[in-house]
Amino acid sequence: MTRRSFAAFTAIAATGMPSALGAATPGSSGSAGGKEPGNDVKRTVDKLMMFSLAVSDMRKAKAFYADKLGLKIATDNRLDDGHWWVSLTVPGGGASIVLTTSHENMKPGTMKLYFATSDVAAAREQLSAEGVKVNEVKDDLYGPGSGVKWFSLEDPDGNQVLLVQPAR
What we know:
Elements: H1 17-20, E1 50-54, H2 58-68, E2 72-80, E3 83-89, E4 96-100, E5 112-116, H3 120-129, E6 149-154, E7 160-165
Parallel strand pairs: 1-4, 5-7
Antiparallel strand pairs: 2-3, 3-4, 6-7
């Protein structure tokens, strides 16, 4: 899968989905580090910048996230096979994903990642055509009747990856 074919991928933060998860929606934040208008709680965090994902085989992980899902490799820093970090970004911006073989307290295969797509059926069809084992599209991500379409697959380490089409 090419990056162009998944140009519709955007970070969940850019889709409005955080509001469905109870987080702030884009444009709802107050001044940096200050209080939100009408809210007495001090805001400490402005946005998610990046997160690390433990991988056991960097070459397979890079191929999956860059070639299959269409994420862009931003940096690739390697000391040796046990100390290797690759930073990836989604076409729509947002937090970066750092694949790492330096696990510290993380274990490969224990994460669940959610990516947004504008056409979940087309994304599933394309990934399936490329040999990725994908599950069927469902329409109940937030429970019965939610209408939020999604399907899941696994990365090379067994991390669960969900592609979600936000409700319109």
